[in-house]
Amino acid sequence: MKKAPAPERAKRHTQGHYTTASTYGERLDAIRDALLNTGIEPANMDALLSRLTDGQITRTGTASKPNSKNLWLIAYHDRGLPFVVIAGDWATGTELKWIAQTGDTLTEAERRELKRRIADAKLARETEQARQWEQAAARAAQRWHKCTPANPTHGYLQSKGIQPHSARQQGHELVLLLTDFSGKAWSLQTIDEAGNKRLMAGGKKARHFIVVNAPDYPARILICEGYATGCTLAEIDPAALVLAAIDCGNLRAVATGARNRWPDADLIVCGDDDRQTEGNPGVTAARAAAIAAGARYALPEWPDEAPLTLSDFNDLHQWQRGQL
């Protein structure tokens, strides 16, 4: 096991933008530019900007997911012009606060009122997001209970050289349940025989995970990114509780959640070694998660002749078996 280095500072997702635009058209252009510069791109920008109703939440799809309702926006008006816009993308966690600098000085009462309205908007969007997540959680639980145990001959399992473990199946898709530490269902991931993976639309991934292996009395807890890696770890160490966090961006939340749930456990974050990707996000995220959770972390130990294309424990296991 490798010792984790000093923690890295987490990136902020909220960005502030200010403009001196004075006409309605100029302010719409400024809002458009601020959204795009922040990385918040609606599926139909013109349609969104035409619906800037004062104090009302607008939800719409994004350019990458036009059928979703991941993008939200709230605008406040002053003298008929948009004065404050708060927007975000629930899928990425990116948020924007845009404020028009009119040159006028707000009175203290006006500042208090603006602060109150922004706080109300924050509560409203959080309430709406929680409602959406709860609806998705109910759909996930319903589908999960309709699935049958996964067939060990499923094409994806065969290609990865793994057993099904906790996976279920519906048609040609493996179905994997994302839960929290209380066991509540929150979302699903599906994998087809070709290995194409999809998270359920509207489901909550953050801080949730797939329980790959759950012995009655686990000797240790292993946390990794993907399901196939988790299966490999479970087959190497059947006595371990194995949790798959879906991706490296979710490792830290799952690891710290596990530490809170089991404060005295031997906790190991098993990272991917993205050797060919700039910054090696798998290693970086595993180290940061281990530091935050007071855990150890492990990486695959590559023989000198191992191809650079290999990155995780499943890749290593497959290559050693002569399957890659």
Q: Helical region count? A: 8
Q: Helix and strand string, N-terminal first?
A: EHHEEEEHEHEEEEEEHEHEHEH
Structural domain count: 2
Let me know the average pLDDT. Answer: 89
How far from one another are the termini? 25 Å
Give the overall form: elongated
Strand order of the largest sheet: 1-5-4-3-2
Describe this structure in words.
- The protein is an alpha/beta fold.
- It folds into two domains: about 15-105, no CATH class; about 150-320, no CATH class.
- The protein is built from eight helices and 15 strands.
- It has helices at about 25-40, 45-50, 110-145, 155-160, 225-235, 250-260, 280-295, 315-320, and strands spanning about 15-20, 55-60, 70-80, 80-90, 95-100, 150, 170, 175-180, 185-190, 195-200, 210-215, 220-225, 240-245, 265-270, 295-300.
- Strands 1-5-4-3-2 form a five-stranded mixed β-sheet, with helices on both faces. A five-stranded antiparallel β-sheet has the order 6-7-8-9-10, with helices on one face.
- Helix 5 (about 225-235) packs across helix 8 (about 315-320) and helix 6 (about 250-260) packs parallel to helix 7 (about 280-295).
- The two termini are about 25 Å apart.
